[in-house]
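Hi support team,

I submitted a single chain yesterday and got back a structure, but I'm not sure I'm reading the token output correctly. Could someone confirm the output below corresponds to the sequence I sent? I've pasted both exactly as they appear in my results page.

Thanks,
R.
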Amino acid sequence: MSALQRLSAWCAHAFAVEGQAEEPDPREREVAARLAQFVARRQLVTPALMLLESGRPLNFVGSQVLAFLAPFATLIFSPEEYEVLVRLLERRQGIDVLIEALTEAQETHART
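Hi R., thanks for writing in. Yes, this is the structure output for that exact sequence:
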């Protein structure tokens, strides 16, 4: 393989924004559902969905901001659960998992 071909192969993946799709584990889904129930009880699902959709391109930066806000989040989650949430939101698919949980929580809350 020539140097030009190696450079071309390297550049093909150097600026890729999509990583491998990882399926969220049950613990991540549980934490997302718990957050969604918290939001749904306060009838803030619509603003939360708007925030998630508008911030989708910056989800990794947002997850790092969440790491900074960890002392305040322990009012809702244990430190271990909060770490699971931050790891979930570091991946692009994490936004989709949270949106699904919010939608399900809103439907459940509307029925009761």
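A quick pointer for reading it: The chain has one domain: 24-111. Let us know if anything else looks off.

Best,
Support desk
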